[in-house]
Amino acid sequence: MLKFLIVLFMVMLVGSLVSGAYFLMVDQGDKTKRRTHTSLGVRLGLAIGLMGLIIFGVATGQLGHRNPWDSGPQGAAMPTQQQ
């Protein structure tokens, strides 16, 4: 569920970016229209929400790293078999 929310926030961020670019081209510097500014505020809020979701996921353990090259903490020695 958390990963779905993260992907949804990313898609909404891209949508806000596209709408901001569209409003920038359509308004052509008209000072009475603030749609580009509003789009930037929405994008900033979505980015803060996305960072909060990622921090929450890492803090609760729902998100983690599963890298094949990372074998885990290196402090503990592997027990050897005694014969």
Amino-to-carboxy terminus distance: 49 Å
Q: What general outline do the C-alpha atoms trace?
A: rod-shaped
Largest sheet: none
Helix content: 55-70%
What is the number of helical segments per DSSP (H or I, 4+ residues)?
2
Number of strands: 0
- State which percent range the strand residues make up: under 5%
Helix/strand/pairing category: mainly alpha
- The gyration radius over C-alpha positions equals 22 Å
Q: What is the N-to-C order of secondary-structure elements (H for helix, E for strand)?
A: HH
Mean of pLDDT? 85
The low-pLDDT segments are none
Keywords: Membrane, Transmembrane, Transmembrane helix
Pfam families: DUF2909
Transmembrane segments: 44-64
Organism: Congregibacter brevis
Describe the 3D structure.
The chain crosses the membrane at residues 44-64. It holds the Pfam family DUF2909. Keywords: Membrane, Transmembrane, Transmembrane helix. This is DUF2909 domain-containing protein. The longest helix has 26 residues, at 2-27. The protein is rod-shaped and about 85 Å long. It has 83 residues and is an all-alpha fold. It is built from two helices and no strands.
